[in-house]
Amino acid sequence: MEETKDIVIIMPLFNEGSTIKKTLEIWIDVLETLKLNYRIEIYNDGSNDNSEQRIEEITDENSNVFLYNCEHKGFSHTLFFAYKNSYDAEYVFHADSDTDINPNEFKKIWNERYKADLIIGYRQNRSQSKLRQIATKCSCLFISFLFNNFKITVKDMNTPFKLIKKTLLNDFLNTINETFPFPDLFLCAYCLEKKVNIEEIPILFSNSKKQGYLDKKIFLLKAISQTAYNIFIYKIKIINVLIKN
Question: In what order do the strands lie in the sheet with 38-45?
C-alpha cells in the first residue's frame, strides 16, 4: 500500500517551456525546506513548445515530480482532471505553472493550514485589464449572492493559490464534471454553501504581460454569461444534493 503524502501540488500547464524548469526547482526547494512528504503533478494541456522536455529534465532526477500529458482541451478541463486525478494526500494545492506568485509565498499558506479547510492566497498588487476586472467582479458578486446571502467574504475566488483538504476536495468533485468552466469558482461556491471555514492570506503577485482570453473583448460576454448560467445551475444542483442527504 502506497503511503499518503502530506501534500500534492497540482499544476496545469500550457506552453511554459521557457520558465517551467526554474518554477519546479523553486517549488522543490520550498517543499523540501519545509520537510514535507510531497508530490508535484504537472498536467500538460497539449503544449506545442518544449514544455514536456523541460519537465522531463526534472522528473528524471526527482521521483516526487510527475508529468501527465493530456489532450489539449483548455485550462478548465485540465484543472478538473488534475483535481480528480490527484494522488492521495492530506492536502491538495493548486499552483500556477509560472512564478507570477512566487512559490515561497506558499509558506504563508502552509503555516495557517490548521485554521481552515480551504485557505486562499489573496493576490495583492494585482494589475488587471478592465475586462478581467469586470469578469472577476461579476462572478464574485453572483456567487456571493447565491451562496453566501450576498456577503462578499472571499475576495479572490479565482486565484490558483488554494490549499484544500483532500477529503473536502473529493466531496466537491462529486458535485461537478469536466464541463464546468473555472472549477476554482465552483470550489468557492461549494465551500460557501457548506459553510466551510475559509481563510484568505495576502500574498504578493508579480504581474506578467501574458494575455488571457478574458482580455479579448470577443470572449468577455460569452465567458460571463456562460459562467453565470453554470453557477445558477450549480446552485440548483447543490440544493438537490442537500435535500437528498
Answer: 65-70, 38-45, 5-13, 89-94, 162-165, 118-124, 198-204
In DSSP terms, 25 is beta-bridged to: none
Q: How far is CA 133 from the centre of its chain?
A: 19
Q: Closest by alpha carbon to 206, among 126, 109, 136, 107?
A: 126
Query: Is the pTM higher than 0.85?
Result: yes
Nearest to 65, CA basis, from 34, 97, 100: 97
Output the CA torsion sign for 135, 141, 146, 147.
Answer: positive
Residue 237: pLDDT over 60: yes
Nearest Cα neighbor of 160 from 120, 197, 133 is 120
pLDDT digits (tens, 9 = 90+) for 100-141: 889 999 999 999 999 999 999 988 776 666 666 677 777 788
